[in-house]
Specification:
CATH topology of one domain: Alpha-Beta Plaits
Keywords: Chaperone, Endoplasmic reticulum, Signal, Wnt signaling pathway
Distance between the termini: 67 Å
Number of strands: 5
Family: Belongs to the MESD family.
Radius of gyration: 27 Å
GO molecular function, one term: low-density lipoprotein particle receptor binding
Order of helices and strands: HHEHEEHEEHHH
Number of helices: 7
CATH class of one domain: Alpha Beta
Organism: Syrrhaptes paradoxus
GO cellular component, one term: endoplasmic reticulum
Largest sheet: 5 strands, antiparallel
CATH architecture of one domain: 2-Layer Sandwich
Length: 188
Amino acid sequence: PAKKKDIRDYNDADMARLLEQWEKDDDIEEGDLPEHKRPPAPIDFSKIDPGKPESILKLTKKGKTLMMFVTVSGNPTEKETEEITSLWQGSLFNANYDVQRFIVGSNRAIFMLRDGGYAWEIKDFLISQERCADVTLEGQVYPGKGAEESEKVKNKTKPEKVKKKKDVDKKSSSTKEDNRATKQREDL
């Protein structure tokens, strides 16, 4: 049993415990909860197109905060980057997208979205802009309209090279020779 303390003798820890006790029984709406405490939105698997992996990401990111990096083409100053990305943010705002913008370099900005389900629509808008060099979303780099041709080729995913059969045979035989456990087992 806790000791009864005079309210005037409460310190910060006591006040925090008291607040937790009061809030324990309160009915807090889901929208007021922090994002990490909200239950995930149910995923409707009938809307998933197996041919498009982006459709899965759209549904899993719905209702969650998401950030994307945007690079402005050319060699803009930080002020030019501020002006250009401000125009993009204004256009997105007029299209009812809730986007916050943070400048992180002379030619880079972060666009933070409250609802990640709209990220791919916003990405499509941004890469169609003249001064957009690229957009990075979920680790994937998408070249923009303003990207140089060499950057467009560099950013595309490259197909894996087919290894020659001789190289594969050499590697497998060398690993057998170098593996001590294999030699001991063969000796036994």
